[in-house]
Structures are given as structure tokens and as C-alpha cells.
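User: Before I run my own analysis I want an independent prediction to cross-check against. Here's the chain; please return only the C-alpha cells and, at the end, one sentence I can use as a sanity check.
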Amino acid sequence: MKEPRASALAMAEAIAATLADPRPWTAEPPGNGLIWPQSLWSGAAGVALLHIERARSGLGDPATAHAWLEVAASGALTAAPNASLFFGAPALAFIMHAAAGTSRRYQGTLKRLDDTVTAITRARLVEAHARIDRSEQPQMKEFDLIRGLAGLGAYHLSRHADQPVTAEVLSYLVRLTEPLPVGGELPPWWTTVAPNGEPSSGYPHGHGNLGMSHGVASAVALLSLAVLRDVGVDGAKEAIERICAWTDTWRQDDAGAWWPGTLTIDQVREQHIDPSQRPRPSWCYGISGMARAQQLAGLALVDEARQRSAEEAMLATIRDSAQLDRLPEIGLCHGTAGLLHAAWRMTADARTPRIGDELPGLAARLTTQISPTEPQAGLLDGMAGAALALHALGTGAVASSWDSVLLLA
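Assistant: C-alpha cells:
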């Protein structure tokens, strides 16, 4: 029987071989979900990251990575208001930066993309500060990771941490946590929309979002990573503390610690969360994202109790078969790959090696979930993301910083 990490790497290699040729996956009409080439979520850009990581680690063919890069860059590139880390010019900039590494490749294209992403970011910052000046609550897409400024900030921190635009995003996130004059009982990041990001009569008072993909955990993670890399801005630690004080209020401790993914105004007023509202342990809304964000906050604040609590929450989850059974999918966003990779990242910083002891079993679980006929190829919900998580465990490293798109590192 293969050693667990060798088995994980073998499965990653098998998936990479399945996804080596872009043509079957991008043929018209699109039959496998890769409809938008410049989408990190489910398009060619996300699959390119798998081959970039393999090439950067010396286990893949750079020509394969370049072929997927060409597909990702095909078609009209959007820099419209809906452009984000996961779609459009910022997504393409991220994967090209990952592909270039420390080399001089793609420098001309990267310079143009950087200028575009910086312009997008600053336009979004102007809108966000104007909203705060009006003492209005934000929409989710203003600050979240998938569509908002936390995602753009993740790009800038990874690409050029010392550039002014990086500090500008971090300073905005600090301001996001400062009380609004008319905030009342609600935190200043309480959104005006439903969890789907749209206004809804079902959420007349909006909602509070704690998750990593669309909620305030992304702000905690980005600010904490910046502090840990000595690129923090004035007030960064205080902002982390303000958010953590709120998330601490909603921490639940039955059958292991957990946090709800979203809150309604009624729950705030009643100060009660029903156990049935425990989210599955995914990256987007569950322990995979929340525990890592809390661990990073503990590291940034030198708060050993917070760090230990986050690690114990992760450990309890990956030892709980009932919680693992709630992740039938394979992906980074909603599935086992996200839990595996978050746990792997937490192990490197943990004060106890016990999380690491559980990784081989978690990887074996993911491997058995993967079907050779899996219809989804993409990064967040498909085979490319699962392969990246297994590749990291198998090699013991991340060469391209691909997981900064998840704010896990």
C-alpha cells in the first residue's frame, strides 16, 4: 500500500493528466462548466492554477500550464464593475503572476494587468469610502472575498505588498470595522442584502455574514496576514480585535466549537442560535474558513488562547465523522478539499501536531470521493481544486501561492 502522501500525490497527478488538454473541456458547446475562460471559480483560469502549481513545483509541464493560460486569456477581458479576484482582469492577473513567479516572463502583460487591477481597486475604494461617509451599511459585494475589496486586497498583498494600493485596501478594511453613527445594535459590516447578495423582502433588515467567501472572516484573514507579513496599517490590530469580539459573541460550543454562517436581526435581538444552524464544515461558511481566520487572528494578535481555540475547533471537526459526512462534494469551496487544505495550512502554524495526524485520513476520504467521470473541472467546486489540495499534502509545499485566493495563506 502506498504511503498516504504518495497516494495523495498520485491522485493529483491523475487529475492533472485528465485535465492536461484544454480542448475537450473548453469545446463548444461547453459541456463541462468551463463557460467563462477568465473565471477562477469555474473557468479555465482556475484549471490553469493547477498546472501552474505543478510546473512551479517541478512535477508538471510548463507547456501545459501555458496552454491553459492562453485559454484563460482568450476572448474579451472584462475590467467592468463586476470584475473581481475571481473574474475578469484581476483573475487573469493573479494566475499570470503565479505563472511568472520570480522569472521575467509575462512582464509586459503583467504591468498592463496590474495597472488595470489598481484602477479597478481604487474606483471601488472611492465608492466604499463615499458609502461610509454617508453612514450607510454596505452591500456584501463591497467588501467580500469573491466579489469585493477583500479579494482585490488578497491579490495586491500577494502581488506587491509594498505598493500604496495594498495599504489603501487594508486601511479601508480598518475603516469598515469602525462604528457608523447610526449603527445601533448592528456592527458596521452588517449588510443591507440577503445572503445571496441581493435585496430581499425575506431580509428586510439585511444580514450579518461571518463566512470566508462572502463575510467578515475574509477581512479578519486579510488583515491578519498583512500584520504577520509586517505590512499592516494603522489600526489593523484594533480592527481584527473588533471583528473577533463580534465573532466571539456568536461562537457555539456544542460538539466542538463552531460559528453560524449568517445572522438575522431577530437572532441578534434574541441572542440565540439554534444548533440546527451549524453550517457544514466547508471553506465558504464553515470551520474550514472560520477556524483558519481565527487562527491567523490569534497569530497576528499574539493571542495564544484564540489560536488554540481555533485549532481545537478544527481538530474536533475532522475527528467527527458526522460532520465529515456533511461534505459529499470534493471541492475547495463546498467540499472535502477545502477542509483538507485549511487543516493542512493550520498544521504548519499549530501549537499541537494533532491536526496533522488526521490529514492522511482526510486525504484518503477525498480520494475515494473523486470520480474519474467528475463533470466539474474548475477550481472551487471541481477536480482542479481537489488536485491542488492533494498536491500540497503530497509535496508538503505550495510553490505558486495559489491558495492566497482563499485567504488561507
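Sanity check: The chain has a mean pLDDT of 94.
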